[in-house]
Amino acid sequence: xxxxxxxxxxxxxxxxxxxxxxxxxxxxxxxxxxxxxxxxxxxxxxxxxxxxxxxxxxxxxxxxxxxxxxxxxxxxxxxxxxxxxxxxxxxxxxxxxxxxxxxxxxxxxxxxxxxxxxxxx
Length: 121
Ligand code: SF4
Known about the structure:
- The structure is a single chain.
- The chain is of the alpha/beta class.
- It has one domain.
- Helix content is about 30%, strand content about 15%.
- A three-stranded parallel beta sheet has the order 1-4-5, with no helix packed on it.
- Iron/sulfur cluster (SF4) binds near residues 29, 30 and 85.
C-alpha cells in the first residue's frame, strides 16, 4: 500500500525539474484532433516578431541547434519532448528523427515524456 507519507518522501529524495525540449517546432493540422492545437495558437502569436523563436509562426522548422540540448542538462529532468510540434511529421526526414532518439539514448539519465503523437505517419 502506498501511503501519502511514502509519496511525499519519494518526492523529497528525487530532485528533478521539468523541462521542454523542442528539436522541431511547427506542424500542420491533419485531423479534427488538431482543431484546438495549443502549439499553433502559441506560435502564431509571435509570427512576424523579428528575432523571436516563433518569428515564422507555426511553420515546420527543424532546430538542429537544439538536437543535443538534453546532454548539457546534467541533473535528472522530466523532459517533455517536442511540445510544439509532431516529431513524426511527414516532412521531417527519418534521419533527423533518428538523431532525436539517439540523443535520448545518450542522455539516458533523464525521463522523457512523449513524443508519441504520430498523427502524420
Ligand atoms: S499533430 Fe499535434 S502539433 Fe501538429 S497540429 Fe495536430 S495537435 Fe498540433
